[in-house]
Structure formats: structure tokens, C-alpha cells
Design goal:
The protein is of the alpha/beta class. It has twelve helices and twelve strands. The protein has three domains: 44 residues, Orthogonal Bundle (434 Repressor (Amino-terminal Domain)); 128 residues, Rossmann fold, CATH 3.40.50.2300; 131 residues, Rossmann fold (3-Layer(aba) Sandwich). The protein is 43% helix and 15% strand. Strands 2-1-3-4-5-11 form a six-stranded parallel sheet, sandwiched between helices. A four-stranded parallel sheet has the order 7-6-8-9, with helices on both faces. Strands 10-12 form a two-stranded antiparallel ribbon.
Amino acid sequence: MAVTIKDVAKEAGVVHTTVSRALSGSPLISLETTERIRRIAAEMGYRPSVAARSLKTNRSQVLGVIVSNINDPYFSNVVQGIENLAQESGYSLFIAASQRDPARELSIVQTMMEHRVDGVIICSSSFSAKQGRNFTDYGVPIVVINNQAAEEYRYSIYHDDLDGSRQVTRHLIELGHRRIGYLGYTPSGRTNLDRLTGFRYEMEAAGLTVDPACVHELTDDGAFGGLTGLEHFLQLAERPTALVCYNDMLAIGVIRGLQQAGIRVPQEISVAGFDNITFSAFTNPPLTTFDQPKHFIGAEATRLLLGLLSKTPTAETHGLENVRILKGKLLVRESTAAPSTSS
């Protein structure tokens, strides 16, 4: 049988309202008493009733999280950061994948509204602002992460992809590479544009020309996309000596394709990725990449959303920082090196 507040009150020798206040952090209860009651509750295995709390607060204690693809290791890391902070704050998650399908987006909005989520974090880069407005029209706050329509959302978290791409490109230039290619992913919109722009800016800053043939963009951002995209560069009369890939999954596919073609990495072609997914440290050779603070991005989005939820419906929210831009760091591994003299 589940332990109740009355059971805890009996063990602690207090009335049940004191237990309720202590567990909710009420200032009416002394710190010493609060700590003693919480310790007793933990020892007895007491778990608060989410249903009861929901009735009392008119909150479901559930946050909606929308990702593009549940299988993407980047999103799984971001969601882990969301979940850690949400759980600490007494919230559970309702996770859905949009698959970049407008009909699916609408279905997700309808389902989340039916389940009365308290707030929503949109991790899907292509999730439309139109569907987002369906949430806000019903008073459900939204925070978006790296969304290509972020200007149309009031609260957002960005990673500085332009700066990250510049750092990756600068690393290759400093190694001595002059003919560098970029393998991109067009459906991501803003994210791909920022990474391509950072690549171009850094090449221009070094006085280097970007051959249009050395920029190739795909509609598949997975490892198979990397295999396919590599074919474009291998068919060029003058191949690049290094490739900057939109993400690590493309880079993993590129490395595999180069090895199948008998081309050594990094001796003949250097390869760099972006995101620092878990797999990137276990490729052969280990992948040079740009490490986005994925857990921190998820946690910051959650912190911002919880800040919105802590406001009363009539309270001003201008004190909250609406847009947060986070930076990562370059991780140099063994997939990049100085170009060989034969190259």
C-alpha cells in the first residue's frame, strides 16, 4: 500500500498540513522541521500524488518535447539535458517526433493539448511557427532550440553555429589546407546556412577562394547521406584535401566511404564533423568535431520554460532573458592532419 501524507505525519508526530507545507517548501515551516519531515518521508518511501497535485495547481506537471527524429543522437543528448532538470523540478516529459511532416506536426499539437502539457520545448529545427502559435493561442508557453523560424517565437535557445563552423575551418586552414570542401544539409535551414556561412567567412578571412564545386548539399543528414555526398567530391578533377561536414553522422559516412575507396584519412583527406555525438570518438580514426554543449542546451531551454511557468498569467515576463546564445568548443582528434605533399 502506498505511503500517504497522513502516514508521514503520524511518524513525524505532526499534523498532515505541516507535512504538506514542509514538502512544498513553505516558509511557514522551520528549516529544521522541513529537513526532518523530508528525511522521514524519503525513509518511508513516500511519493507525492501527481494527480492530486494536478487538481490542486491546475497543472499536469508534464512538459511536451518535440524533436525532428527520435533516432538522431544529437537530439537524444539534448533531451537528456531537458529530462534531468525537468525531473528535478517534478515534471515528466511527453516526447514526440515531427519527422518534418506538417500533418504530423498538427497531430502532435492536438495530442499535446489533449494531454494538457504545461509547456513545450521544440527541438525540431523545421517545426513551423504556424503550429507553434496553436500552443500560444491556448496560453501554453514555448521555448525553441535552434529553430529556423526562431524569430517568430519569443523565447529561444541558439547554439552559435557560425562561430563553431569558423573554428572548424580555421583549424583546417592552420594545418595547411587550402582547398576545403563543405558537405551540407539543406532541410535544416538556418543551422546549415550558419555553418556554411561560417565556413565561407573563415575561408575569405584567410584569403582563400571557395570553389563552388567544393560546396555540396544533401537532403539526408545520416551516415548514408555522407556516403552519397562523398561521391560528388571524388568525381571532381581536383579533389579537396579536407572536408567540413554539417554534422558528425555525415562525417562518419564520409570516412566510411573514403576507406571503401582506399583513400586514407587523414593522410589523403582530412574530415571534420559537427555536434560531437557519442559515436564520433569511436570512429576509425576518431573524428575531429565541434562540441555543442548539448546537455546544457537542453537544460537551459528547460530552465527558461520553467521560468515562464513560474510566472502568473498576468505577470510581466520581460525580466526573463528571451534569447540565449551558447557556444561550444573545437575537439581535435585524429581525422584531421596537415595535407600530404602529394595532395
